[in-house]
Amino acid sequence: MSPENKDADNKIDYGLLDKVVGYRLRRAQMNFFATFSEVFSDLGISPGLFAVIALVESNPGRTQTAIAQALGNDRSAMVAAVDKLEKMKIIERRPSKSDRRSYALYMTQTGNDFFKTASKRVMDHEKEMTSCLKDEKEVAWLLETLRTLSD
Amino acid sequence: MSPENKDADNKIDYGLLDKVVGYRLRRAQMNFFATFSEVFSDLGISPGLFAVIALVESNPGRTQTAIAQALGNDRSAMVAAVDKLEKMKIIERRPSKSDRRSYALYMTQTGNDFFKTASKRVMDHEKEMTSCLKDEKEVAWLLETLRTLSD
DNA sequence: TATTGTTATACTCTATAACTATA
DNA sequence: TATAGTTATAGAGTATAACAATA
After folding, report:
1. This prediction's pTM
2. B22 closest CB neighbour out of A14, A21, A47
3. Is the pLDDT of residue A7 over 80?
């Protein structure tokens, strides 16, 4: 190694970044989403679409706007998402009985089957990704910590 | 509350999502980046640009590609980033002595001052965002956990 | 007046491919 | 042949503004 490129050959020093939760959150999330996309490539949905399905499954009958707000998205972004999930026969729009402006979202039977398959896949993915943690207690602690960080 | 919209008035049940590290990572990271952007609106840089600056500061003389790889970005994305930071007089390209294809990146004096200001702002932001955690030990534990999750 | 779903639009981020000059 | 920087481009994702129907 010649003296003049000594620096360039050393390993990168992350300096301050290594102590910044915001940066470390981003790297961890990028890793989760990249592997998620691989695991889900055959099912044809993104992490964002899975979140929509999971929320409709747990909260049948909600409006598009309610689901969007719960996910922190703008309601305009829900249109394409629900269009796609309706084309995939996973969820369906039904006219709201109490408000003719809005639709209520429900799972289809196909959607329930799909959700069962996808959920198992998600939990397997989670298990693999969190295998570096000590035990279930540590995973629970991490989940609780992340929740407080998003409030 | 009328019986037919009982469900719609209840609070959202996050169901499975609440147990999914990938989803909780995303929400936490979105919160960090949104508040970061507010805090940095007057300085004119995004979280991604701050990461570039921090890495150049800790690793002067590296090439664009080296910085990009360290951040997990494509090298093509570095062009606009370095263009902008060079226009802001924060970092500068210098011709590499050993390889005429590449540039070495260095901080300017303005850049060093800027970094000092920005770093303080970042650490203040971090402190506020992690104030919900018990102590410094818990922050360190979180940082270490997040690091293992991104490998 | 306010809200729901919708469309159009724009802006950022990211990824890919191809080009040039060097190695 | 391979690599560094660059350009063009295209695809997500996201946010804003406006509109029609309805509240």
Report:
1. 0.93
2. A47
3. no
